[in-house]
């Protein structure tokens, strides 16, 4: 007889988080007339066609004009609406950075910025379309909360939280398919890390599309007798300082792994925290350069963000 | 020398009775504009900083809006149905603060804190600190997109509230304005009014020498706006145009207000040096004399 093994996280079905995004946004809009979508011609790439059909007046398409898009969202919020801006993260954050700073964050307007297809999701389209800088750019701006969900459940939960909370939020919405990491009863809590796997030898801190890879890395390490703690850090800002300090204190070191530039993102936030509160060894995995051509999966693997790459970084910390 | 409470002597002007005549309204605006200029002169002189040229360019427009056009008062400053005014040329914050004080939105004594440490009265306005400010502006080209968003919210609400935005002419060199104008036209935001303070001077030179905006009326019309040109220092013309929104049903309105930077001070008017120069003691006294002269030519 053949033993049925518990499948690895890597073998689970995969989901496009944009589907959870549009489904949740429609539910929220159904329940609250204040919610509107704002897009830069990005209806299709945001998968918002069904939303537009259900709420034709409430999907505002300003065309290919990101500065205007974010300013318009700020004005809509001034009028009592709750705008969810939905645009490719590279253009939303890059082209409208000053509007995000002045009209949204500094003005403290109730605008929800949803960066679609972030990281290297647009793999072969090249670095102009990669959005690896978005987190670092926005981390430098006061007053904006940064959330990087890891799966469709967390994407939906973060959206529900954002709709119910007052003030500026940036949420990354992945188009790279990912397995479910969380159970259906998951509730998002701002600024809280989730221990998705207990462990005492070494800690991996991750979020977004890389979190499941971190879990798969922990499976590889467990097979070698290494106990890796995996912390999910969906909120990059404000960071869960306590969880980071505990990891620094209780394990031999920390590996951060994210689909973002390897300076100024989650890794930077963790390193800043560790240095100030409990110095420890930290290895930052991310994308350190303008990437060559290749698919998103290829690029993540290339920069050590594969399960084996993350496991290798963790092993090095132990020696 | 710093501004103190004794320099903040602006009389607070109430709202006119609803059925005031046009002549009464114009008189009210003229008195407000005069008092705002005198107080703003003190503000900039004593603070040792500010943008007095742009302030004086815009004060007749601000006095007209707050004196007789905008459906907003200190009591309705948070009313969802209030009209909105967004100052896109945020560097003339001094003129806006003084106007808000003149109409009772801001305690007159608070003007004495202008630019001082921890004051709510920053060099550029902050909506979270100053009642009556609708948007944190300063970087140019931001006000019009925000105004479009607000006008869209009013349209979604099927509300009659109106949105006014005051932009500098040099500011129109920012592309975000033209993005916003396309959207305003596309969405037929006919309760949105853009007022351009057309003084033809930017920080260091004329707009024509820098990045010419003309033919501005034709450009605005090509972007789908109903275009009106007025003398931006004539309170009657301003009142008539700004009260007549929508100027053309289905179209947003683009008011080109022809103004002079530094108006009406003899040595400041239309002088590019007065973008952010601060009057010294002699200049302050002369400007004050000119403003207080009862026979001062308005235009």
TrEMBL record, chain A:
Record keywords: Transferase
Protein name according to UniProt: Transketolase
Entry keyword annotation includes Ribonucleoprotein: no
Enzyme Commission number(s) of this protein: 2.2.1.1
Pfam family, one: Transket_pyr
Transketolase-like pyrimidine-binding domain span: 15-180
A GO molecular function held by the record: transketolase activity
PANTHER family according to UniProt: PYRUVATE DEHYDROGENASE E1 COMPONENT, TRANSKETOLASE-LIKE PYRIMIDINE-BINDING DOMAIN-CONTAINING PROTEIN
Principal EC category: transferase
SMART domains according to UniProt: Transket_pyr
From TrEMBL, chain B:
Membrane spanning residue stretches: none
Domain of life (superkingdom): Bacteria
Ranges of residues in domain Transketolase N-terminal: 31-280
E.C. number(s) listed in UniProt: 2.2.1.1
Glycosyltransferase recorded as keyword: no
Keyword Repressor: no
Keywords: Thiamine pyrophosphate, Transferase
UniProt GO molecular function: transketolase activity
InterPro entries linked: THDP-binding (IPR029061), Transketolase_N (IPR005474)
Entries under Gene3D superfamilies matching the protein: 3.40.50.970
Co-factor(s): thiamine diphosphate
UniProt family annotation: Belongs to the transketolase family.
Protein name per its UniProtKB record: Transketolase
Species assigned in the record: Kribbella aluminosa
């Amino acid at each position: 007889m053949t033993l049925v093994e518990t499948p690895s996280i890597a073998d689970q079905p995969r989901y496009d988080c944009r589907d959870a995004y549009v489904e949740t946004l429609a539910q929220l809009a159904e329940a609250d007339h204040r919610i509107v979508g704002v897009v830069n011609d990005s209806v299709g790439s945001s998968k918002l066609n069904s939303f537009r059909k259900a709420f034709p007046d409430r999907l505002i398409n300003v065309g290919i004009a990101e500065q205007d898009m974010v300013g318009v969202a700020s004005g809509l919020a001034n009028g009592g609406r709750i705008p969810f801006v939905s645009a490719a993260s590279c253009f939303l954050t890059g082209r409208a950075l000053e509007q995000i700073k002045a009209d949204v964050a500094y003005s403290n307007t109730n605008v929800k910025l949803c960066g679609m297809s972030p990281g290297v999701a647009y793999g072969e389209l090249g670095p102009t379309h990669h959005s690896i800088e978005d987190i670092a750019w926005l981390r430098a701006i006061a007053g904006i909360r940064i959330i990087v969900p890891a799966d469709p459940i967390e994407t939906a939960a973060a959206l529900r939280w954002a709709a119910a909370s007052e003030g500026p939020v940036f949420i990354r919405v992945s188009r790279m398919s990912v397995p479910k990491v969380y159970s259906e009863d998951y509730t998002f809590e701002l600024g809280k890390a989730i221990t998705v796997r207990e462990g005492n030898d070494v800690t991996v801190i991750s979020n977004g599309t890389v979190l499941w890879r971190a879990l798969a890395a922990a499976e590889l390490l467990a097979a070698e007798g290494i106990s890796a703690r995996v912390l999910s850090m969906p909120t990059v800002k404000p960071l869960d300082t306590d969880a980071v300090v505990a990891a620094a204190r209780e394990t031999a070191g920390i590996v951060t792994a994210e689909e973002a530039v390897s300076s100024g993102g989650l890794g930077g936030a963790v390193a800043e925290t560790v240095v100030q509160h409990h110095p420890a060894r930290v290895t930052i995995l991310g994308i350190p350069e303008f990437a060559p051509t290749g698919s998103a999966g290829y690029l993540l693997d290339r920069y050590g963000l594969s399960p084996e790459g993350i496991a290798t970084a963790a092993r090095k910390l132990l020696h | 020398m710093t501004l103190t409470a004794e320099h903040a002597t602006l009389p607070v002007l109430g709202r006119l009775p609803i059925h005031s005549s046009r002549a009464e309204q114009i008189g009210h605006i003229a008195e407000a504009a005069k008092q705002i200029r005198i107080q703003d002169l003190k503000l900039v002189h004593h603070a040792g900083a500010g943008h007095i040229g742009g302030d004086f360019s815009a004060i007749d427009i601000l006095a007209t809006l707050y004196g007789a056009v905008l459906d907003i008062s200190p009591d309705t400053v948070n009313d969802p149905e209030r009209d909105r005014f967004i100052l896109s040329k945020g560097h003339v914050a001094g003129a806006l603060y003084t106007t808000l004080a003149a109409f009772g939105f801001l305690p007159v004594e608070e003007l004495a804190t202008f630019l001082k440490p921890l004051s709510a009265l920053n060099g550029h306005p902050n909506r979270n600190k100053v009642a009556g400010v609708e948007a944190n502006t300063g970087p140019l080209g931001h006000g019009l997109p925000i105004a479009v968003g607000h006008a869209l919210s009013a349209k979604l609400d099927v509300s009659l509230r109106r949105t006014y935005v005051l932009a500098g002419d040099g500011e129109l060199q920012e592309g975000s304005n033209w993005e916003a104008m396309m959207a305003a036209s596309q969405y037929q935001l006919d309760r949105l009014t853009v007022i351009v303070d057309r003084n033809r001077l930017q920080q260091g030179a004329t707009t024509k020498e820098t990045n010419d905006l003309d033919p501005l009326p034709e450009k605005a019309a090509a972007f789908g706006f109903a275009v009106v040109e007025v003398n931006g220092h004539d309170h009657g013309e301003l009142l008539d145009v700004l009260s007549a929104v929508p100027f053309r049903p289905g179209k947003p309105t683009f008011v080109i207000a022809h103004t002079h930077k530094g108006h009406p001070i003899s040595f400041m008017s239309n002088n590019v040096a007065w973008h952010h120069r601060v009057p010294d003691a002699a200049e302050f006294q002369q400007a004050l004399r000119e403003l207080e002269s009862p026979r001062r030519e308005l235009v």
